[in-house]
Amino acid sequence: MHIAVEPSILYIGTPVVLVSTRNADGSSNLAPMSSAWWLGWNCMLGLGAKGHTAQNLLRERECVLNLPSDAMVHHVDRLAKLTGSDPVPPHKQSMGYRHHKDKFGISGLTEQSSESVMAVRVAECPLQMEAVLEQVHDFGHRPDKAPGALAFEVRIVRMHAAPSLLVPGRDNHIDPDRWRPLMMSFCRFYGLSGELSNSTLASIPEEAYRPVPHMKR
């Protein structure tokens, strides 16, 4: 029998994404987040409106979505409670955040040039998606308070994958048995435990989902 509950957060379980953006001075910012979902070659990102990544996205209108594997959990955790904002916003100060500009250095990760955007990729991430901003929407509407977050719709214009993730002999097909994403559920890190069952949807050829040409800026 179910009971009514009111969790403080509804992070049921989504992949961790390292979002890389360009700062106003041309340097790189890197931020972990997990409020992301994909449909076709577009992705929705949920970010605090006053955060450094959100401000960079609004100004530069591009980013890279770097997906770490579960083996990278300690690199990702080094970025927790850090912000590129200086001064640190009050709500983040209250949660113990501190300013740190060199996110790549402190995480032990490596910058890698992109091909279609100015924001850099994370070399260690097995999947990297260069993206451009298409739409921005206020998010978090409620009767007693103005929205404090933004929903960014980005379009993937170039994707890179580690060759070890591909199905042998099929250059555009990622093998889910080889891909081990880092997941976040209720602010805790998890991995995948393996395939549970055959899927009826998996019988549809993957190419059937390919959208019309989408990679133009």
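That was protein one. Protein two is written in the same sequence-then-structure order:
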Amino acid sequence: MKSDFSNLKALYINCTLKRSPRMSHTKALMDVSIKIMRAEGVTVEYVRLVNHELAYGVYHDMTEHGAEKDEWPSLWKKVESADILVIGTPIWLGEKSSVATKLIERLYSESGRRNDKGQYYFYGKVGGCIITGNEDGIKHVAMGTLYALQHIGYSIPPQADCGWIGEAGPGPSYNDEESDAKNNDFTNRNTTFMTYNLLHLAKILKDQGGYPGYGNSRGDWDDGTRWNFENPEYR
């Protein structure tokens, strides 16, 4: 049965090392997912992170901690309003890009925020990742990226990653015509499945108002609620 996803917002953050207007292979694969979301009526925003002056650090505004400039506070507003966050990254030396690592560090700086149930802020939001390269590493990069997202509170649906890699060694990348990557059924299937799994979980969570606060509210824990946890030290 077809669902109505038109009340959802998605944010795609491309962590390529290339500034605009240089072509990004990661963006080319992200566009496949973005096109599906927009066709389903989802409001989509796209950010190429390297185009922005993002300071290193784990505070909301690093200009308050010595940085000359930090655009994270304005980018945070986009993250804050999105029901779905998709991180796109190329593979470098078997790892996500340094830009993706910086993004995750800045997301981590916001993880102590609380929602109106006293839960950590990212509860009820959904995350996924899109990865490109021309050597092995998709599963390794996805493992670290998705772990980081769930650790700070994002929900990860089944098969929440997709990607494309060519043969090992130097060779054509995703958007190079000679790779024929856009006709790769495995990549197209996984990208489509990932996109709809993100949409389904985001809709379920949004329709029910996120997760119930029973048993997972930091606010309640700090106020003394222990639910069914028993420890003599708390008596």
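The two ends are 50 Å apart (CA to CA). Keep this in mind for the problem set.
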